[in-house]
């Protein structure tokens, strides 16, 4: 087998010089932002640092090293069917802050954990992300030195974010212990070079991530689906198969998934996001999201001993609930494969209302909903890689994906006339 150690495939040719500063980069369009970048790039910020020569050994879109990194940081690889989808975990909970942070996307567990690490002097700084000045959703990574700064960064910013851009600032300072709050592509790169940073301690708090966009595209998306896009402060794709948009006055606007005019959005998702296989942020010490929990609760996965210590720090401020699972996702996912192979036009409004009703009535919920969404993302992204970057499949599709999708082998063969494995 040909060695990958020192090779950079031509989809990762370096650009001329660093990207723009953090003050402006997240406001740019996708074309402006990724101009001169590799074809597969989420602009995680790594290549804007002095560590850039190590990109070929760290970038998940050059070579996915999930299996080796799981062994290094979690002490083992995935074993169960759920771990094939959710990643290695020791414990899994539904929990929420009590009382919640009203400015957070959910209850504020992620930012509170970062704040506690500073309060207890376990870290010198936290890499987190706030909204850029004058925006609600444009991400601006920064180095938080106080608990209040971390708490103030709460809230979703579902756009490409160059969080690793701050690694040089850390290495050029007296900071020896950090916490990093970030998404999967960032965490993969950080883990791959973690031992080279010379830091005493790195806590990795993972947030789930799927299909980020450039900030102008997000604004267009909100304009297309909301009656009042300028007042939306938070939004999320929920288990009742609708997007919940929270407005400044606290009102919740709901838009059925099937009513989203995807054709009008066009190609808003970068190829990197469509070639990513780590929604649950599986290389973090602890992942804090929502998808596997019932509405109003957060989904917490403890992945290793460090993650257990992080949860113990946060535990006194949490209330817990049972994780639930209802329904059977398999028929819906198999049907999705057919639609993936033969996309159809959006049905008329009356039919869409009926479909939305049936999805809410019969669709999977709880952990089964999380399983279904992750499987659909894996299937869509495998197909995107095969359609656009076929020669890179062995490098960027990790080992567990084919095991996770094995139940759909026959449906995939019927739809695409080829083996899924």
Describe the main β-sheet briefly: 8 strands, mixed
Radius of gyration, rounded?
Answer: 21 Å
Count of alpha/pi helices: 17
Low-confidence stretches: 1-19
Overall 3D form: globular
Number of domains: 2
Q: Report the helical percentage.
A: 25-40%
Which class of secondary structure composition applies to the elements?
A: alpha+beta
Order of helices and strands: HHHHEHEEHHEHEHEEEHEEHEEHHEHHHH
Report the mean per-residue pLDDT as an integer: 92
Largest beta sheet: strand ordering: 3-2-4-5-9-10-1-11
Strand content: 15-25%
The rounded distance between the terminal residues' Cα atoms is: 19 Å
Quantity of strands, as a count: 13
Feature tags:
421 residues, alpha+beta, 2 domains, 3-stranded antiparallel beta sheet, 35% helix, disordered N terminus
Characterization of this structure:
- With 421 residues, this protein is of the alpha+beta class.
- 35% of the residues lie in helices and 16% in strands.
- The chain has 17 helices and 13 strands.
- Strands 3-2-4-5-9-10-1-11 form an 8-stranded mixed β-sheet. A 3-stranded antiparallel β-sheet has the order 6-7-8, with no helix packed on it. A two-stranded antiparallel ribbon has the order 12-13.
- A hairpin with a 4-residue loop joins strand 6 and strand 7 (242-247).
- Helix 12 packs parallel to helix 14 (367-388).
